[in-house]
Amino acid sequence: MTVEELARRAGKGDESAFAELVRLYEKKVYNLALRICGNPEDAADAAQEAFLSAWKGLPNFRGDAGFSTWLYRLTSNAAIDCLRRSKHQRGEASLDNEELRLDAVDGTPSPQEQAEDAELRQAVMAGLGQLSEDHRQVLTLRELQELSYEEIASVLDVDLGTVKSRISRARGSLRKILLKNGNLSGYLPSKATEQKGGGRL
């Protein structure tokens, strides 16, 4: 059964179909909430709130943007709300090695490369915590969730141009933070790459 079919059944009150949707997306929803909120407690609350909103909203869900995009929008909104309510607005997110996409070198990395990657992950994690809510949000969706600009615009319900502008400024802000804290320029996307919409953290 496809996700769309599950969503349609859940929208008609099928609890087993909704349970299957939760099973399929609970990890992605939690990870997205964690990176925006910055701590596990708020992320768990945001994920629960997102799924509750999804259950309530599924009867009116038409599938125009796709279920996952719609669910990411609910998650992002719930996470931002939790972040604003939290006293720990700048907690550190958990960026696991497998989940943080960097420009990796092909083949097995040397011990030195592993150490450099670990240093970069730590620097990125700290840098994300220093960004504004809007900037942290768009980088999370783009670099970690790997959504397209169009998908991010749909998730955040903003214009495509706004998404591109926020991502560009967020990358610039993070670049300044990384350069200020160490010589990490080799890991950052070039201006030309960034203008083409490419490049990863």
Number of strands: 0
Mean pLDDT: 75
Distance between the termini: 36 Å
Q: What is the radius of gyration? A: 18 Å
Structural class: mainly alpha
User: What is the subunit organization of this protein?
Assistant: single chain
Task: Tell me the β content.
Answer: under 5%
N-to-C SSE series?
Answer: HHHHHHHHH
* Main sheet attributes: strand count, strand direction, barrel closure: none
Overall outline = elongated
Helix content: 55-70%
Unreliable stretches, pLDDT < 50, 5 or more residues? 87-107, 185-201
How many DSSP H or I helices?
9
Describe this structure in words.
It is a single chain. This protein is mainly α. It has helices spanning about 5-10, 15-35, 40-55, 65-85, 110-130, 135-145, 150-155, 160-180, 190-195. Helix 2 crosses helix 4, helix 4 packs across helix 7 (about 150-155) and helix 7 (about 150-155) crosses helix 8 (about 160-180).
Summary keywords:
disordered C terminus, elongated, 201 residues, mainly alpha
Q: How is this structure best summarized?
A:
With 201 residues, the protein is an all-alpha fold.
List the helices and strands and how they pair.
Elements: H1 3-11, H2 15-37, H3 40-57, H4 67-85, H5 111-130, H6 133-144, H7 149-156, H8 160-181, H9 191-195
